[in-house]
Write a structure and sequence with these properties.
alpha/beta; Rossmann fold; two-stranded antiparallel sheet
């Protein structure tokens, strides 16, 4: 499977490309600058210990042309411009996974929100209803993505309106080393994207080492469980 990592020459793009390659797929790293993509493709395989043939370099426009899955990893400030540049080269058979979060590249504790309410919604609106757009990998750190041999400290929260597309992304998460959970429709994307700033705040405020979001069940066999009898007068 060929996966285009659009605007993928930053840390998050390098992490997504690493996880794609770790699943045995081809990561075509795209950039406005072909040279930047080529430099990353030259260095990344040795850096993460994966075969070089699983990585390719291209411009953003060329990266998406023969891709089965298109990952949008653009910064918030360049998200719309990147979408406008690649749209003429997309087709509606491709799965689109939007990774962009409302983080200000100049100050990671600040948020920049698009008028559509979320970056996933901006992607869906700009591309149109014929495209399957899913928001995922919004809250996992680049460090966790790069360390592909470690057990993940994050689960992947998945949003979008197409159930089949979300199911496909959930299966991809498994192959990339994560548990993925469908947490709702496109209208729920702002809640998921907003968690990214929360994770960054925790990193700075409490010096946590790249915290992640894990969905954890209560342990089985507990003796005290909710019981409506607690709120009723006892019979004498």
């Amino acid at each position: 499977m060929r996966c285009a990592v659009v605007a993928g020459t930053g840390w998050q793009g390098a992490g997504i490309a690493t996880r794609i390659a770790s699943a045995g797929w081809t990561a075509v790293i795209g950039s406005r600058s072909l040279e930047k993509a080529e430099i990353l493709v030259e260095n990344l395989p040795d850096f993460v210990g994966l075969p070089a043939e699983r990585f390719e370099a291209a411009t953003n426009e060329d990266a998406v042309k023969e891709a089965d899955v298109v990952w949008i990893v653009a910064p918030s400030t360049g998200h719309k411009a990147v979408l406008e540049a690649i749209k003429p080269h997309l087709d509606d058979e491709q799965l689109i996974i939007d990774v962009t979060a409302p983080v200000d590249p100049e100050n990671h504790l600040n948020e920049i929100w698009p008028p559509e309410g979320s970056y996933t919604a901006q992607t869906q609106e700009l591309l149109g209803d014929d495209y399957d757009v899913v928001g995922a990998f919004k809250n996992v750190s680049a460090t966790m993505l790069l360390n592909h041999t470690m057990p993940p400290n994050s689960d992947i929260l998945i949003v979008g309106d197409d159930l089949q597309a979300k199911h496909r992304v959930g299966l991809m998460c498994k192959q990339m080393g994560f548990d993925g959970y469908d947490v709702g429709k496109l209208e729920h994307a702002p809640q998921i994207e907003g968690l990214t700033r929360l994770m960054i705040h925790l990193t700075y405020a409490y010096h946590l080492n790249q915290p992640g979001i894990k969905l954890v069940e209560l342990s089985r066999g507990m003796e005290i469980l909710p019981d409506d009898d607690l709120f009723e007068r006892k019979k004498k």
